[in-house]
Amino acid sequence: MKNIAVVILNWNGEKLLQEFLPKVITYSGDARVIVADNASTDQSIEVIRKDFPTVEIIQNESNGGFAKGYNDALKKVDAEFYVLLNSDVEVTENWLIPLAKAMGNPETAGCQPKVLSYHQRDHFEHAGASGGFIDKNYFPFCRGRIMDSFEKDKGQYDGEIDIFWATGACLMIRADVFQKANGFDEDFFAHMEEIDLCWRIKKWGYNFKAIPSSTVYHVGGGTLPYSSPKKVYYNFRNNLVMLLKNHEGYWAPKLYYRMLLDGVAAAVFLFKGQFKAFGAVFKAHMYLHGHTRYTLKKRREIQKNTTKYNSSGFYRGNILWAYFFKGIKKSEKLNQRLFD
After folding, report:
1. pTM of the shown model
2. pLDDT value, residue 227
3. Same domain flag for 200 and 278
């Protein structure tokens, strides 16, 4: 596995490094282990140099968020495969072997393991679960996690499967494909940048896979709590930007319909007295209004380079309708005929 570089993006995470790096080092064989530091102001660098001398360090000049942090660091990493690993992920013995085997298929651009909760170890975790999908209105969900419903892992999603997106919490990806795609969209800063990246790459005919025979445990919410208004802002903003960039066909009806659905969500926030969340949705829409022309320029570039769109993992149903109106809380209960 000398052709694999496990790259952990870090910002002021010295305690997480002390807790999770030992197993990454022990269980990653001869893969390179690298910490890309986003200009931390704590003792992260000192901790690595003192306690983990075999770990390579890349020091970014500033904290540009998840997207820019990885883009800057990975330009300095010579490997066939990158593994992007969150600093709050506990890996397990031989975790890289099934992932590396899956990448033996040249049509596979990337893959992810099964992601379980660190704190509730028999349940799936929010970020990725057992593979990411997206519905016809471009709401993302996972096999094992729909909205805020997390299923218990009973082995029901242990089969390898084509997915629409692989989680950035633990993503193995071909280095040459990542660089050809110019990496993550740095305007995202954080949240959904991996979905956007996978979507763009799928427009070249590649697939992404979930490989549940590899398992990791994710703490989650380490950068921003799931209820944070800033997280709400990034999720709503980046989802709209991603839609405008990547939607197949004429974009306006789909975008305006999605903005209408966002308005319903904002009204719910307001009704519940979550005024900061309501403001975050409004701010996200204002961002899109101010950056529509800029985003359409990106869209034209993507369309120009599209060769063969691989829609595997696309759910032609409405996940909101299934969840809120039909009461479907488990992925296996969804109409499987609606999946590409």
Report:
1. 0.95
2. 64
3. no
